[in-house]
Amino acid sequence: MDNLEKMRHTLSHVLAAAVLALYPDAKFGIGPAVDNGFYYDIDFGDTKLSDTDLAKIEKKMRGIISRKLPMTKRLSTKSEALDWARDHQQKYKIELIEELPEDAEISFYDMGDLFTDLCKGPHLKDLGQIGAFKLIRIAGAYWRGDEKREMLTRIYGVAFNTEDELAAYVKQQEEAKARDHRKLGKELDLFCFSDLVGAGLPLFTPRGTELRELMANYSLSLRGREGFKKVWTPHITKTDLYKTSGHYAKFGDELFMVHSQVSGEDFAMKPMNCPHHAQIFASRPRTYRDMPVRYMEATTDYRDEKTGELGGLSRVRSLTQDDSHVFCMTTQIKDEVKRLVGIVKELYGTVGMQKLRARLSYRSDEDKYLGDKKLWAMAQDQIKQAAIDNDLDYFEQEGEAAFYGPKIDFMAEDAIGREHQLATIQLDFVQPERFGLEFTNSEGKKERPVMIHHATLGSIERFLSVFIEHTGGWFPFWCAPEQVRIVTVNDKVGKYVAEITKILDDVILEKPLKHNELRYTVDDSADSLGKKIKRATEMKIPAVMVVGPKDAEEKIVSIRLRDGEEKIKLNKLTAYLKKLS
Question: Which residues pair with 108 in a beta bridge?
Answer without folding.
Answer: 74, 118
